[in-house]
Please model this.
Amino acid sequence: MTDEKKLTGLTLLKKGEMRYPTSPAEAKLETFENANQQRKYWITFETSEFTSLCPITGQPDFATIRVEYIPGEWCVESKSFKLYLFSFRQTGTFYEEIVNRIYTDLDQALKPQRLVVNGDFTARGGITSSVKIDSSET
Model:
């Protein structure tokens, strides 16, 4: 496959392109073909700048989100993933729902060999929360 053909589906990677989705449903996870399907290897994304809203109080929640996966046929393009995570900023939802939504959306888009999504949320009322989904345990 030519380089040009590989890149035709990546619309968010354009120079200067910055359309911020307002919700995860509006966000688009763009993918490209895994050029090394003969090999098992890990891809990891991590951000300590994740924010969402408490569905009860509307106050911001902060987390470190870590995604690790062994790709199958597809890999996620990192800018589209960044914008996808950004789309949670105005979304009022519980931690467990956030991590499960990220897992489900990535699993559907990528069909990875293995997928682990972990959310470490900062303290609320003196209690920290961590939510983890590992496809090897589901």
About this structure: Residues 95-110 form the longest helix (16 residues). The mean pLDDT is 91. The two ends are 35 Å apart (CA to CA). The longest strand covers residues 43-53.
